[in-house]
């Protein structure tokens, strides 16, 4: 049949016949691959029964143990509850025979001049002396079970001296025991647990009945496999496997850039947790039906779903995940306990925004290719590729995927009812690991995650999004993956509606000066300012500001007119700010500490017609074409003006001030802020308690937008404002001021916060709230202030000058602090 005939014949095939043809072609291809593997020689017994080399997989774990002696991340504790009449001697004999049959369970690992070797120790009888807890209260016994499992899993193995596997038995009652069998991963894998369960069941039943072991002797041992693997995997066999993986992983991305709750630390700690997945009724069956229709396995469908989610989260189209295979491709390996499992790297191309059907085809191709080349140990692949190594992430991939659909091994012993004991897992080797478990018509899963990177709510949200992807592709396999919805209805409501309900009952139409006037009218005798020994009430401050405002009106100041203000921290500074606003103008703060050249630029750029200053600062003032007014030496003239409030006609949308940026990335730029912007920050807030009972410290230069909060949060809420002297403050000066005036609300830069917490923590103990911002917070110091000043609410704030000082805030809570402090 010609090629043209073949294509014309294909066009006449029905979808069902086409699917059958594809299935037969795939079976033929798999048979060819199996024939290649079967052509390899069977695994012989090693001639030398002395020390043997390690398998490639074992060698990796041995090196990790050398780098991190005592690490427990590769410990696996399996616990079984045995209820009924347990014969302890029979159980001991059972494990004695298990250890005799499987040499790997009595193997130790020597360091022979830098080269690891495995040595099999002679068989020894296993003795079981149950630790008796039957005299304890029932509730205590139940709590004890989990504690014992965790203790066993956390007990390191000594690979040099052994043992590498241990059995412990605990008696909770005469008819209630817990057996814990713990192994190091270097001698076992998941398949091995099934082997152990089946053999323990057969041996216990036989010994209990007085019979001999019914199990045939093993044809080979794990050390025979290790020797064979080293000898077989070289030359042409090695090159054929290697070439596939080199082609597949050429220019592979170094990392999958997922959004995390915290930045990656310099060294992986392997702290982790698990999130268990439950799927809606009918969804597993629908996914299986989808797999049949698209001529793929359930593994491929779930992997495509997982890749879709990872691609959407990372915004990457080159997604690399790891998956494990049992790697027992020869019959003589199926009944061995040992570390055979291999890791495959599955690299999927999601470029071009394919439909989910197209993605399934890509996943199918890459998965079949990987399975056909699974004999190359992952450790050998890493050794050959030599990817850039890092202590804070695993090479080649950081996320894994797996599907287990083999029937669970049932352990049945005479006279006993057995049940597995659920175990807590608090380790994670990878950033994320998704595991799915198919049992008949049901399916469940779990996500194991690094708690250094992710918080539980994030994983909960990810699980919901995973389910959304599943439901979407079941409904329509043709939609592009970029259009697959992730958000649930509740999340859509939250994002589109709830988070956009930003309306609040703050004063939306007033000017700053009007809200101050309300406070002055309500409480004229209340102290508004303290500067050294000088106290100024709200009534006095309002009167002085009115006199200045009338004077400025006479100089032409009105709405949108910019007025320069170059004064040191003082009562005059506050009078100047209020006077300018009452006249309808907007203030331009000029720091007296700035170089004359910068001051000249700002004055010229803002074109201020009037500049307010103090007598002793005139020598620092650059030449100015407009009016210069000294608030101290010329007050006699100003004081002749009316002290009554003005009607200046401005609205909340008029300018309140113009602050110039630092100019660190170029020419300084003036940032314009309206009255409404300031009022939204300091009135009816949700980040701090701002009322007449607070005492604020004003310490920031008015050219720094932090002063906006310090000044107006106090004066627009009827609180007291303590003005720090104009000199540069020392830590001792700040501490003394906090104590003397009993400051309750403090704003400081993050850097100053760090130093205060380290050196003057006692001075902070009178605070009710502290606000920081401007830099990265050191978690240890945040924890310290939360621990030692528990009555103080600490907020980490962020906001650009353009958005009026604060845009976001994070109320610091000790239990939520990780490797960084959020904003």
Structure description:
It is a single chain. This protein is an alpha/beta fold and about 800 residues long. Helix content is about 35%, strand content about 20%. Strands 5-6-7-2-12 form a 5-stranded mixed β-sheet, with helices on one face. A 4-stranded mixed β-sheet has the order 8-14-13-11, with helices on one face. Helix 9 (about 285-295) packs across helix 10, helix 10 packs across helix 13 and helix 15 packs antiparallel against helix 16. The radius of gyration is 37 Å and the shape is elongated. The chain starts with a helix and ends in a 12-residue tail after the last strand.
The percent range for helix content is: 25-40%
Q: Structural class of the helices, strands and pairings?
A: alpha/beta
Kindly report the spatial arrangement of strands forming the biggest sheet. Answer: 5-6-7-2-12
Discrete helix count: 24
Uncertain residue segments: 1-21, 31-39
Report the strand count.
28
The shape is elongated
Largest pleated sheet = 5 strands, mixed
Radius of gyration: 37 Å
- Provide the β-strand percentage band: 15-25%
Average pLDDT works out at 89
What distance lies between the first and last C-alpha atoms, to the nearest angstrom?
A: 69 Å
